[in-house]
Amino acid sequence: MAQSVSKQFHAALSYLLGEEGRGAQSRLSCEQKIDRGYLNAIVKGRKPGSEEVRMKIAAHFRIPYEEMLALGRRLLDGDEIQVAGASGNGTSETVPLPPVSAIAHATDGSATDDRITPFAKPGREKEPIAERLRKTVAILESDTSYRDVLADLIDVFYGAVRATDDNLALRNQMRAMESRIASLEKQLAYKKENPRKFA
């Protein structure tokens, strides 16, 4: 199915704003003198944006307009994207991206399956916790959009773990209370059977 230019541009714009991180839309609006409301409508996909504004946006990201459309096409097709410097040693790394429609479906709440399916990594042994912590710290200290995503995930998972721990503690307290109540019931029954001893 042919993709419209506006869809290609929107996919590329969303991706590039995400790569730039927090405040990217405000910076783009200020630096290129684009009305914030109009830019927001373009980002949300409500307006396609004029050709002049699209050229300004491409100039902001320092890529030719045609390359921005090509990036959008690749994103919509779910092709792999070359990310410069992603490997940390100045070389580029190929990152497979799912189609934008799949990302939108997963984040707009329309997905019906709420199970989390982990990525399969065949033939790979578990990394030591210290190595995972080192990677986590590196991402959290980076100035990328991945930092914010990871921080949000950590908050969600930490909350789930804390809730599990709290539930376990409550269950243990309930068992202790049930044990005490059973003990008190036995004492009361004994007192009823032997009233003279406690008179």
The largest beta-sheet arranges its strands as 1-2
Could you say which overall geometry the principal axes of the C-alpha atoms support?
elongated
**C-alpha end-to-end distance:** 92 Å
What is the helix fraction of residues, given as a range?
A: 55-70%
What is the count of distinct domains?
A: 2
Task: Give the integer mean of the pLDDT values.
Answer: 76
- State the secondary-structure class: mainly alpha
Main β-sheet, in a few words?
2 strands, antiparallel
CATH class term of the largest domain: Mainly Alpha
Q: What do we call the CATH topology of the largest domain?
A: 434 Repressor (Amino-terminal Domain)
CATH homologous superfamily title of the largest domain: lambda repressor-like DNA-binding domains
Unreliable parts: 83-96, 98-120
Can you name the CATH architecture of the largest domain?
Answer: Orthogonal Bundle
How many strands in all?
A: 2
Beta-strand percentage? 5-15%
Q: Roughly how many Å is the radius of gyration? A: 28 Å
- Helix count? 8
Task: Sketch the topology as an H/E string, one letter per element.
Answer: HHHHHEEHHH
Keywords:
199 residues, two-stranded antiparallel sheet, 434 Repressor (Amino-terminal Domain), 2 domains
Short description:
The protein is mostly helical and 199 residues long.
Describe this structure in words.
The protein is mainly alpha-helical. It folds into two domains: 109 residues, lambda repressor-like DNA-binding domains (434 Repressor (Amino-terminal Domain)), CATH 1.10.260; 74 residues, no CATH class. It is 64% helix and 5% strand. It has eight helices and two strands. The chain has a two-stranded antiparallel sheet with strand order 1-2. α1 packs across α5 and α7 packs across α8. It is elongated and about 100 Å long. The N and C termini lie far apart (92 Å). About 19% of the residues have low confidence.
